[in-house]
Structure formats: structure tokens, C-alpha cells
Specification:
4 copies of one chain form a homotetramer. Chain A is built from 10 helices and no strands. Chain A is elongated, with a radius of gyration of 19 Å. The first copy, chain A, starts with 6 loop residues before the first helix and ends with a helix. The first copy, chain A, binds a DNA duplex (21 and 21 nucleotides) through helix 4.
DNA sequence: AATGAATGAGTGTTCATTCAT
DNA sequence: AATGAATGAACACTCATTCAT
């Protein structure tokens, strides 16, 4: 009768799900993140979700479809919209300086990532093994977000706040730095001597200086 | 009778291996990298290595032991020594400036990574699922390398070439950046518009500026 | 679609079994008795039972659990109760003489053994290799039955019908004789010149005289 | 480097064996007795004997041949001759009374069984699974010994010391009793309250009385 | 919608046996 | 005579998936 607390949050915007279906999604998410997709058995998921194994296949034709059902909304409904929102703010010149933009993104992302850490872990782990995922990623995150980020970067380059190198390089560096920060933070999760405030501060400084003209 | 070209390179320094054993290691490496450890079957490995399935288990008691046999030497014999070498050069004041050090590391690493890309992929993919790997990593890379890198960073901080923030933060940022560069480079491997020279140049510049006092 | 005739008899008092489960039990019983536990493969059992191999493991987690599922009820539900019944009759002084008791036991046992010969064979063969079986045997047959038999023997010793030696010795001798009779009878099963009536008569006489004061 | 102490005794009369061969026989004997023939692997035997697995198959074409090589001499060279000897003593009227004969047999057997307990265990366990063994047993023990025992029994029946029932029945009863005594003794081996002298005395008394006219 | 018994292909692993050295 | 690497068939057991209820 294990009821996952994050269940309601994760998938709650989708009305069409039944109780059991949400239990399945929550259980699968947790297990995929913990042991990997291939190493998780459907019987395990069923047991953890408190449903019969057949029930899983009533909702998802295959185990892979279950994986996609978990990861796709992450890309389609969650990452996309949020990033777009940030970016729109910039393009509407709500952010006057690059630093403000970076800070807002990190902050926004931090909340988001904390909530969806296991989802992200699954995405990162499995993306290289499943071409469909890669395609979806390129489709939803890659193209759109990348294109919009390019706009932002060019916007700040035009304002003389960012060094004049290809936007893709900027994105790569900023992305690596932010992702690296998040990964470290969550891998060294248990570490006690981690001063989040200060680390963010340093990371932003590093980015700002590194990308300054 | 598929003979893997990288076989000789990967494990050739270890004399104790038989022909078949090396075929097994090469096949397993390739498949683990391509499909993941859990999704690769021993029968597949045997087929690709051109040996009987039983032969695998004559050399490696379990599939997991095979994984460790692939990944452990990477940590013990390859990553460790090379990094140490670089660092010793610095501590012997062969590098007068931080930039030279970073460049040397990237360069060194680039060759190494190109040679051992699939090994690294396996390590990165599997490390979170196998506590033994994590421990070994902390033991061999974590503790030693981290400690030595700290020395280097403090060395350059003392010379006023690096900003005065905790060495661990510097390592994280530099690490993320370098790793991010490598990952992007190899994921976008097929991309045609990738100017390696220039990208390295930009990355180093980014790092230098980002970490400057 | 081989339907074992003894299936219904062997396990029919247990309502909880499905059709297939009973087929599995019957097939396993026959094969274990015929070739021994270790020499019987689960695929063989499945084939004989007319089910898929996986079905066996849906009902019994391991091959050993299947063995225990066959042998345990023999000890818990069959041997125990029947022997107790006999003994209770004696203690209720339904048997005035030791001879009557022995005859009743042999007779009772004979029917029982004929019905469950293969089960008994399995028990005898495997008991020395499986500590769990030994423990269960001591628990259910050893302790209880032994204790009750002691009472009976002392009862008849008090009446002056049995020689005054330790009850355990009496049990050993009577047990060996009865078991020896049964084993011979069933090993030399095919022999034509076996007069059961007369052999029982002789065996009882032998026991009576042997144990007389 | 495990050297079995009983090794020399067990097979020492056969000069043709090499060192290793005797190690193999000793190891196999111990393991077959402990876990049963089918549950013992040749690799286990090789390990315990301190030889390579191939060496076993140099001497014994199959695992089964190894079993037969262990059990056959027991029947051909050991049981047979000893029993014959006893019997010859009787027929040469060295034993004037049945009791003397029984006592001599039990005593003789006791030494023998103690020495060859594991061999006997193997024989008893495996005889029902291997037709060859059964045949050999009937050939060497069954026919010959049985025939000679019949003579003895008739001899004592003629002297009026044994009840006039078929010799086969007498053999069965005496055999069960003796075997039962031995088995109990060795199964309850560790029991502390086992007074061997007294038990033999009782067992002989039981037999004598049971078989008296 | 949900179950859970049933499946058969597949899993990692062990087996007895072979053979070049 | 002895080895030990190699084998492929078999092993116990698990898998994702189906389907009658």
C-alpha cells in the first residue's frame, strides 16, 4: 500500500489517469531511476505499485511504452514550457542583464530539478539507449529550446554582455556548468559541508566571468 | 570470427590474457557501451566474441565480474596514472601558468578519451547502479586525484592565477566544463560543423576567464 | 496431456490447488521417485505435467520448494495423523494385546504405503541430503510419534507383553522389521512368488517372539 | 592438498592405482556420500582431489564410470569375500549355534561398515537409480550370498535352532534387523547415550528369540 | 478496469566432456 | 600421465507479455 508522495505532483496535471495508473507511474519512475530501465522488471513495478502485473499492460502495451510515458511528458509538458517562459521574459526585456537571466534560470531549474530528480536521472541514463528518446529530446528540447536560447544569447551578445563566440558554444558551456552543478549537488547529496547559497553564487560568478567579452 | 580492432590497444598492456579472453573483453566492452550492461546478454557477448558462452564464465565467474574486469583497470591503471603524471609535471613547476596546465590536461585527456570512449561511457552509465564501482571510483579517482588536484589548484591560487574559492568548487567547474566538452563532442560526433581546434580554444578561454581572480 | 491417475488421490484433500498445480505435483512426484531429486530437471517435470516451465516457478519459487511441497504434507498431514490415530486407539485400550497393535499398524501402513509409495521413496532418498527435511522429519515424526510410541511400548511392557529393554530399542527393532518388510516387498515387487498374507504373518510372529519377555 | 586418511585403506589392495587416481576416488567417495551422485559435480571432485578436471576423465570415461569404479569393488572384492568366509566357517561347523553365527556376522560387519560407511551409503542411495548397479548387486551379493545364506539357514533349521519358515524370510528379517541397527547407529552417530555393547546384545537377543522355533 | 494464471523465449550460470599441449 | 582452456547442451529460473475471467 505504498503511496508515493510525489505522485500527485508528478503527473497531476493530466486528468485522464486512474489511481492505479498513477501508482504504476510512480513505482516505475522510482525503480527506473534506482536500478535502470533494463534492470527493472515489470513484476517488480507491479509489486511496488500494488497492482497485478497484467494491469500494467492494460495501460501500457509494452514496458518501453511505460518508459516513454514517464519520460515524454517531462520533455513535452515540463521542460519545454518552463524554459520558454523564462526566455519570453528575457525577450520581453524583463531581464536587463545576463546575470539576472542566469540566476533566474538556475533558481527556476533548481526547484524543478529537485522535484523531478528521478525523472531526469532516467532521462539522462536512458537517452543514449533509446533512439525514440533521443529524437523526442532533439524535437522538443533540442530544436525549440536551443533555437530560443540562441536568440537570448545573441540578444546579450548584441548588448555586449557575452563574448562573441558561437551561441552553441555558449550554450554548451553554460549547460555543462549548470548541469555539473546540479549533478554534483545531488550526487554529493548527503555531504554536510555543502553551502548551496555560496555554491550558486560562485557558479554564477564563474559563468559570468567565463562568458564575459 | 569478428576481430575487434581496438582489442589490442585496450587491454594489451596486461600480458596474462589469452586470445579468447581478449575477444570477450572487447566484445563485452562494445556491447555494454552500446546497449548498457543490463540490456546486454552473455549469449550476445559470446556470439560477438566468437566463443562459447561457457568460455565467458570460465574466465569471469559472473556477468558482473566481467563488467568490473572491464571498468576497474580503467580506473586503476589508466585514469589514475595519467592524471598523476600531469599533476606531477605541475608540481615540478613544469607548467608556469594555469592555462598551460588546462591545455595539457585537455589534450592528454582527449587522446585518452578517444581511445577509451566506450570504456568511459560504460563507467559513467553504470557507476550509479553498482555500489562497488562507486566505491572503487572514490577510492582510486576520488580520493587520490582529488587530493592532488587540490594541491595544483592551491598552487595556482597562491600564484594569483585562480580566484580564491574552495578548490572543490574549482574542480567541479573545471570538471563540468571539460566533461561537458567531451560529452558534447562525442554525442554530436556525427555533426559536420564542429571545429575541434576552435572549440578547445574557446573552452580553455572560458575556463581561464571564469576562474581568474 | 498426460493425466496422472494418482493425482487426485495424492493431494485431493487440499482444495487450494489449481488443475495445473496438481499436474505439476504429480509429475514431480513421479519423476523424483524414479530418478531422484537432483537428477530430475524442471523442464522434464514441465513436459510430463503438460505445462510451461515457467508455470512451475509461478507456484514454487525454487525446485527445492517443489520438493518440500511434495514431502512436507506427507509428514505433516499424512504420517502424523494416521500414526496418532492408531496410538490413540491403544492408549484408549482398544488393543488388549501388543500383537493386535502391531497387526493394525502394519495393515494401516500397508494401505497407506501402497498409495504413497513414491512419496515415501522420495522422502527416504532425499532426507539425508536436505537438512530442512531432516528437521521437519524430527519435528513431526521424530519427536511426537516417537514420544507416543514410547507410551504404547511402556504400556505393553507394564502388561508384561514386551521384554523390558529401552523403548527406543524396541522401536528401532520393530521399525527396522516393518520397514524392511515394506522395502523388500516393493523392491522385489515384480517377484511372483511373494505370498503377502503369509509374509505378514511371519513378520508379526517374528516381532512378537523377538520382543516377548 | 587434502589427503584423505581412509584413502589408503579403501583402495589400497589394488596396486594399479596412481596417486592422483586414489585422490580422485577418495574425493568422489566422500562427495557422493555427502551430496549424492547427481548433485556432485566433477569440478567439485577435481577441486577436492587436487587434480585438474581433465584428469578425472583420463581415468574414467564418464562420471558414471567413476561411480561404478567406486561401488563395484565394494560388491565384488569386499562384501562378497568376507561373507563367504563367515559362511564357510559355519559350513565347516565352526559355529555350533546360530547365535554364534549371528554374533560373528554382526561383529565382522561392524568393523567393515565402519570402514566403508560412505561407500555403503552411496550404494544404498544410488542402487535404485542405476540398473547396472542393481544387476551387479543381484549378481554378486544377491545370488551368491543369498544362496550361501540359505544353506546356513537350512543348516540351523535342520539343527532345530531356527523356525521353519522360508530361508528368504529369515534372511529378510535378520537382514532388516542388522541393517536397521547399523543405520540407526550411524545416523544417530553423534548421540551420546548409545551403549553399543548393550544394543548389540539386545539386537542379537531379539533376533534369536524372533527366529527361534 | 483489473486480475492473476499461464506462457515460451530468454536469462545467467553450471555441467560433463574433449582435446591440444 | 596430467593439464586446463574450451565447449555446447543443459540447467534452474526470470522475463515481458497474453488472455480468460
Amino acid at each position: 500500500m505504498e503511496h508515493n508522495k510525489s505522485r500527485e505532483k508528478l503527473f497531476h496535471d493530466e486528468r485522464k489517469f486512474t489511481e492505479k495508473q498513477m501508482d504504476i507511474l510512480a513505482a516505475a519512475t522510482e525503480l527506473f531511476a534506482e536500478k535502470g530501465f533494463a534492470a527493472t522488471s515489470t513484476s517488480e513495478i507491479a509489486r511496488k505499485a500494488g497492482v497485478a502485473e497484467g494491469t500494467i499492460f492494460r495501460h501500457y502495451k509494452t514496458k518501453k511504452e511505460l518508459l516513454l510515458s514517464i519520460v515524454n511528458p517531462l520533455m513535452v509538458n515540463l521542460i519545454g514550457p518552463i524554459v520558454k517562459e523564462d526566455i519570453n521574459k528575457v525577450l520581453d526585456t524583463n531581464f536587463n542583464h545576463f546575470e539576472e537571466f542566469i540566476l533566474a534560470m538556475i533558481d527556476n531549474r533548481r526547484v524543478f530539478i529537485e522535484k523531478n530528480l528521478s525523472l531526469l536521472q532516467i532521462l539522462i541514463q536512458e537517452i543514449s539507449f533509446h533512439p525514440e528518446l533521443k529524437e523526442q529530446f532533439i524535437e522538443h528540447i533540442g530544436k525549440e529550446i536551443f533555437g530560443r536560447l540562441q536568440q537570448v544569447i545573441r540578444h546579450f551578445q548584441a548588448k555586449g554582455e557575452i563574448v562573441l563566440i558561437p551561441a552553441s558554444s555558449v550554450i554548451r558551456m553554460a549547460g555543462s556548468t549548470v548541469l555539473g552543478y546540479i549533478m554534483t549537488r545531488n550526487i554529493i547529496a548527503s555531504a554536510d559541508n555543502w553551502d548551496d547559497e555560496a555554491e550558486v553564487e560562485r557558479t554564477v560568478q564563474f559563468l559570468m566571468k567565463g562568458l564575459s567579452p
